[in-house]
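re: ur question from earlier - yeah i can do the single chain one, its not a big deal. heres the input i used so u can compare w yours
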Amino acid sequence: MNIFIAGLSYQISEPDLKELFEEYGTVSSAKIITDRYSGRSRGFGFVEMDDDAEGQNAIAALNEAEYDGRTLTVSVARPRTERPSGGERRDSY
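and the output i got, formated as tokens:
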């Protein structure tokens, strides 16, 4: 199960995120999304858990919970939709 987490502190690390979710089961990966140019956290990330029941327990327990001074939003991740690349922009006048 792929889980989306928003509202993360900019100081949280991937090992911290993994540890937070490991209280609810086995975590196969934890990824914090960072800005491509600055390398700074964008305040959200994803956790993958192999067992769907453990993932649902984690979502139920952590959604709207406070962590590191911030309120988390935790949900099942939606499949990524393709966005047009940012290379060419057309403005209408």
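The chain has one domain: 2-76. not sure if urs matches, ping me
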